[in-house]
Amino acid sequence: MPNRSTPRVVVVGAGAFGGWTALTLAERGVQVTLIDAWGPGNARASSGGETRVIRSTYGTRAIYTEMAMRALARWQAYDARWQRGFLRKTGVLWMVARDNGFARASIDTLSAAGIPIHDLTLAAARQRFPQVDFKGVSTTFFEPEAGYLFARLACEHVVERFVAAGGSYRQASAETPLAIEGTGLRRLRLRDGAVLQGDVFVFACGPWLGSLFPDVIGRRVTPTRQEVHYFGTPGGDTRFIDAHLPVWIDVGTRVRYGMPESARGGLKIADDTPGPSFDPSSGQRQVTPESVSAARRFIGRRFPALKNAPLVASEVCQYEATPDSHFIIDRHPRASNVWIAGGGSGHGYKMGPAVGEILTELVLGQSEPDPQFGLARFTAGWAQQRWEKKWS
Predict the structure, then answer these.
(1) Quick one: pLDDT at residue 265?
(2) Are 343 and 321 in contact (CB under 8 A)?
(3) Which of 272, 274, 297, 344 has an alpha carbon 20 to 30 Å from 319's alpha carbon atom?
(4) How confident is the model at residue 79 (pLDDT cuts 50, 70, 90)?
């Protein structure tokens, strides 16, 4: 039962950040109301889609390595409790065309954190993964504790567990832009005319944060259009299933990544390059012929047996990127009871359980915001600082 001495919390957004925050708060006895405009894991959300990579490799950005370890531990614990198989630990094969220090820095950072990492020679990689053509690759390494997550299904289940823990969920949309009066927020007006009251409000609305907070967020979170494709494998060919092919990330002039044959019955491929700006509410989600052709060329080169593979499915999702690829997890500068979380920048989904813990501690006054995720970094004094990009 909710603890009446704790605040009443309203969480807006039932994606990876918001859903896990609501569940973590509810499990600690907090009275929580969670809302989402189209439902958890919906096709317009940054947390939608079939699968997401989970890995701890971030070069020298140890804060994300630590957060990924924290998230992985929670994914494993919940997977053991729920018995739903949302986490698939296949490992991640990294293929780097020209090592600019990222590979060595990643290996050193993971080793220092006690995370297993295997530095493979090209000869060893070819022997271990004969279905892969390593032409153009100079460095390979393997992260055995990594893998992928079933994104949409997990989002839906997290909300189910939240409700089972005593939380209240409804499909609803907040009015935009949000009007902050005085030093706090007491009521949240919804587009259907209803009003939600609370003591603390958490906005984890991904690509919609800019429209909710045009003055504080605005273009600091930019939705970009990203296309994902699934290519069919030969019938009965087991070389591309989890048992024989891990998640793979190819770092070349562009960064491409994919998963073994699982969801949608095909090998997944996506290009990490930020696409054009995109309206997540009204944007059309048909894939382009150019994107399909580029994906097909790459698949045929890196996985020769799939040169003529049929396209079996595609989807259009979006990143919600900050200029430096760092998350935003901070208090609203003019509202002490409003927290903002977003800027997943294409690498945020796996961090949901860890972000949920972080926001729960912030809401309950058990910690202070980390300046690396703070809004102050966007002010004039911080604007000149060069931040590492997520693959550099």
Answers:
(1) 81
(2) yes
(3) 297
(4) very high
Tokens of 143: 């992260």
Q: CA 232, CA 272: separation in Å to the nearest integer?
A: 21
- Rounded Cα distance, 39 and 167, in Å: 15
In 10 A of CB 179, how many CB atoms?
8
Angle between helices 102-112 and 62-82 (to 10 degrees): 60
Q: Is the bond into 353 cis (omega within 30 degrees of 0)?
A: no
Write down the pTM of the prediction: 0.94
Name every residue whose Cβ is closer than 8 Å to that of residue 191 and which is 6 or more positions away in sequence.
172, 173, 174, 175
Tokens found for residue 311: 């396209």
CA Rg value for the chain? 21
Question: Phi, psi at residue 11, to the nearest 5°?
Answer: -110, 125
300: which 2 tokens?
């045929």
The C-alpha atoms of residue 133 and residue 159 are separated, in whole angstroms, by 41
Residue 297: partners with Cβ closer than 8 Å, 6 or more residues away? none
Does the domain made of 8-383 have the CATH classification 3.30.70.100? no
Question: In a 3-state reduction of DSSP, which class is residue 262?
Answer: strand
Dist. CA 158–CA 173, nearest whole Å: 19
Q: Is residue 268 within 8 Å of 250, Cβ to Cβ?
A: no
Q: How far is CA 337 from CA 70, 137, 170, in A?
A: 26, 50, 22
